[in-house]
Batch of 3 targets.
Target 1
Amino acid sequence: MKLHPEDPRLTSYLLGELSPQDAELVATAIQDDPALAAAIAELEEARDSLAGSLDLGEPRLDREQRDRILAAARNAEPKASPFSFANLKPYLAPVAAAAAIALVAAITWRSLHGPDAAIGASEPDATEAAESPGGEAGSVPLPALAERADFRKPQESPEMAIPVIGRQSGFVPIAKTIREDRKLPDPSKVRISSLLNSYQLRPEGPTVVARFPVSAWHPDNRSPVVTTHAATAATEVLPCPWKPSSVLVVISLRGNPSVDCEIEARFVPHTESVRRYRLLENRIPSGTATPSASHLLRAGESSLIALEVEASTASGSIGAIEWSANGRAATAVPVELDPSREPSNDARFAALLCAFGLWTANDRDAQVDAALVAALAREVAAEDLPTERTDFLILVDQAINL
């Protein structure tokens, strides 16, 4: 197995995300190639440095906080669903209380310690939150309305800027409205991009690593100029659950573990294979001011968005993601249709988040109903589903039954 030092599988190997067979092949390749060994050593150093800087110690809860957690756990079991969630219950029942505890504990942890240590996300301080247009802590300016909700035709709009969203907490206020207020959230308050960026999702399609030069000597490159990892862009295409004539394109931008970078990215559709496309985001009331999107991708953060694309072809290329990091152009990421490829679990979960957002936002173009959201939730259910994702499935069930 021959790998390039910039191959993203090296990072997956270091994080233990590969299958045993693939991990063994990568390990053998590292042993046989000094350049790969040096790349792994560089990644390990970055990982250890990040882990050390984020060691915040054990969180402590007072009596009142513990009582709130226990009360949430006792009230976590959802009622029966009219949309056949029975198939989902065997997976949810053993972890329903744990999921609720995890949710409340996460909120408590953030109130005590600030940013999420596991993600390395940075939240604005109280002053920044007060000055932001939406007034919500952790919110990130989203692109203008014209780039968020309306379909575009490639002939009229040959490209669309991709916003850098960053870590969000869109799940928490929606969960509060559904669980405490016993009602669906205000459609104008739902942000699909915020829901997507509340979870760690990795598209499993074409992936490109952008690198920038560093003036330093390296054992495997005697030139005085070497490069280091700046950011990673990836895409994955899957069928659109609510429109058979469309596909969903999940786009991920992932930053360097320890250094911020400026990202400029855009989707360039092929005019011969795309009828129209749009960024999946709910509309906001007309006349509401929306500031320009940020291009800053903070260290250790990822940014996800989803596009709905009506393609005129059943397979092949429908466009590309053209992008740059810190002003240097990176290799474009292809956006390709492959009917034989099964969507990854992360892509399926992204489709559920998008459908839930469109349903609660009453999006008139998608016409998503509760039955479709329930079906997508059953599709992603599994015994080994992470706790935070299981909690979202429980929230879906509770929302449908309101």
Note: The chain has two domains: 8-53, 115-368.
Target 2
Amino acid sequence: MRALEDISFAAPGGEITCLLGASGCGKSTLLGLAAGLLRVQQGEIALAGEVLADAGYNPPPEARPVGLVFQDGALFPHMTLAANVAFGLPRARAGEAEGWLAKVGLAGMGARYPHELSGGQQQRAALARAMAPGPAVLLMDEPFASVDIVLRRSLRRECRILLREAGTTVVLVTHDPAEALDIADRIAVMEKGRIVQFGTPLELHEAPATASVGAIFSGAQVVPGQVADAGLDTPFGLWPFECLGGEMPEGAGQLDLLVQADRLVPVADLRGGRVRDVHPIGPRNRVLLDGAQGAAITVETVLPVDPGKTYSVIPDPGSVRGFVRNEALRGTQ
């Protein structure tokens, strides 16, 4: 089984490109190929028009003009921060280490050891070490995952400013859509070893290529549907064609329907889904319904809903977006 299938994209110079997807989609494999941690078996990786690696040419990481930042920072524990940053520099440039530490907010901390730092400080030091040699490309694999969520938000925004000011070309792997939106200029959404869409955050939000991409960036949910004579047959009742926000997708039959939880109205009906949970969230109830064939849907409503009872859900007119189902990518959402 191939880890990657028909991958092709270009990361623009001086921009931050994110590879976004769930665990097992191939994003870290792709980064490993670019870094030289994995061998290219087919195709090629080019940098500034020159082949960096292909099936017959796989230089090791130290022979590539790339910097690496990993999830845990991977600092040398027996070295001070200044020595860590200076490790990849020529001896004549070792004095630049303190300057790089200052750029990442660690001024005056060069004499400390990694164990004396917080997780966020360790990642800043790792970033300084990777950027100091001036790599043509900086490769980052889930660099903020080990930092607590509050610090993570501020750290990635500070990181974006630093990288953009430096004009660094970056390819960053993440499974977190919020992180991709916070830091990326362009995002490659990956599913099952493929890139299903590549574009700016605005393009992915406004014109998703698939229902799953739309769900990632809009907070909506995906419901399976079948075009029938009287409407769209779903596990939660028959939805009228008027619910679709645009024209019926070309070649429609089996559809993935994208809809927001607060655009659905529950209606008591034995043909719908069974209420598994009702959770008050302020003035609304968040209701989870289980439908046929393992389907589930979330509804946010001010209407009273009884746990254990059966309800259909009716979408507001124009609130649903339909996508022809891509069976090759099913099971990755």
Note: Helices lie at 27-35, 81-86, 97-103, 119-131, 149-166, 177-183, 201-206, 211-218.
Target 3
Amino acid sequence: MIIITICWWLFWSFGQTMVYHRIGLSWRDSLLESIITTTVLALIGIIISNTFRYYQPVSKNFYLLGGYIILLTALTGRTLYLSFSSLHADDAHYQEHYLGIMPLRGIYYLLMITLMTIFFWFRNKIEDQTRARQRGEEAEKLMREAELSRLRLQLQPHFLFNSLNSISALAGSKPEEARKMIQQLSDFLRGTLRKDDQQLVSVHEELRHLTLYLDIEKVRFGHRLKTELIRDEITDELKVPSLLLQPIVENAVKFGLYDTTEAIVIRIETGSEEGLLVVKVQNPYDPATARPNSGTGFGLSSVQRRLYLLYGRNDLLTTSHLNGIFTTTLKIPQYK
């Protein structure tokens, strides 16, 4: 704004100097009058700018804005008339010929003040809209962060209570396994507390944390739970929101073990395609008793919501079922 103001001042000073000289003033008087006129108009511009910092007229009060422009024009004309009269008090020719065209100069002052008023009004209106949009974006960001934290708070106790119930059941009959599960649970929760809901971690780190979860579940379910991990090494350094896979795998364990006493295999596969990390989690289900379309539970809905909050898309989590296999497919955009 300082550079723009200086350029504006120089441009109009030069322009007015040329005009005044063409109507008969000497170069000295032309330059002096143009400097005085442009400086006074610049001060009026500062007044207008400060006015709009504290007052934004609405459409029904625009007549006040017109009155404001006329008042500033009159003030400018009177100030410049007195200044030029004082400078040329002994010059009868100037008093007769050049002060006589003050009404024409007044039209110029009116035009300049009107243009400055419109400029500063639009500028402050745009700044107000920008600040309002920034406040809205900050509020929306805070709401997203709060919702992400709420999703975690809902999810973690669910898993924690199940683990504590299993530890309680093992404490009497299998104390060694109970101690092992307590250590595993401690390591898992320590890693969970260190992570941020919006933090991106590598697939390698996410799978390592997921392994801690699966080790706990294997202690809970014993021989009934087996896992198969097919990891494309290319995906190891790709990024995924932290703790995103655990609720998906927990959902697979939950629905895979329902209605069966046999061992099941949870299959986890990572890959990539067209700038996306692709993770597939598969679990068996009994078509006669399971309801895969409606039984996705809180885990998958929380993941779906979290993906929308982070990426603004609803197509990153899909499910399908075929030949007794329920598949959850997760796609994570990779930004360089």
Note: Residues 292-296 have pLDDT under 50 and may be disordered.
